[in-house]
């Protein structure tokens, strides 16, 4: 009983700290609470997030603010944060690292690349060639990097925030389906509303100062603890069935060429649980299902045309929400 009480106190404190983390990030990133919650959902689900939008909407600043808000092992400057600017001439070794000759030891040693970090910002990922994009696959899926016959494990907390320009832009390479599937969530970061933008213009110096002196409100150990707790969040059997039904309906829908996989369904469940934690709960609600379905599934589906993209998944989701509303889950 004492152990359970202790654990309960830990969970309560950690849930409070998540809200502090959201508020801390909002001192720099204004008017983006929903996007912040999605980013933290991907983090607590042990996944990665893809943000699509035009340059200048705050995606890079968002990644830096998150990294600086979490204290690392040294408690100086936050967790280990690296930024990679993806360009057409980038090579896989620029990400992974390479072997260099040590004149003292008279042997080749492996010099680790920027992928060996806690929070990675992969900026404009779709400007690099598919060969470079694929270099991210192993580390995102398995938290490890293989060089020759040696496998190097990544940090326990390894989180990728990737940004991409809209695919209609010149000089971009559409991400392959296998790469997109590694991202638990994809969001459109978007512009802020007019009132918030005016506030930013009037206080941009203060916001920049906030980024320089951001508070560290959550430790890396607490993030790892919350990742484990996310797996224990209660989810009603009928909501699990709803996830199954949605996944299956994406495969049956005539307007969807490629439906969601079983792995997508598992990812869906993980994100539902993590989203509940981000919102201060240890149980999943039907409202959670409605809010995160597009962010988790839309980028995994291939639609017949643009009209189908706009309505197909929404119709599938509405059908399940109607079914759940009749059950009146408690």
Write up what this structure looks like.
The protein contains 13 helices and 13 strands. Strands 3-6-9-1-10 form a 5-stranded parallel β-sheet. 50% of the residues lie in helices and 16% in strands. The longest helix is centred in the N-terminal third of the chain and has 24 residues, at 2-25. Helix 2 crosses helix 11 (262-278). It folds into 2 domains: 2-229, P-loop containing nucleotide triphosphate hydrolases (Rossmann fold), CATH 3.40.50; 233-327, Helicase, Ruva Protein, domain 3, CATH 1.10.8.80. It has helices at residues 2-25, 33-44, 59-69, 92-96, 130-142, 177-180, 194-202, 204-212, 220-230, 237-252, 262-278, 286-297, 306-327, and strands spanning 49-52, 70-71, 81-85, 97-102, 107-112, 119-123, 144-147, 150-153, 159-164, 185-188, 218-219, 256-258, 302-303. The protein has 330 residues and is α/β, with parallel strands linked by helices.
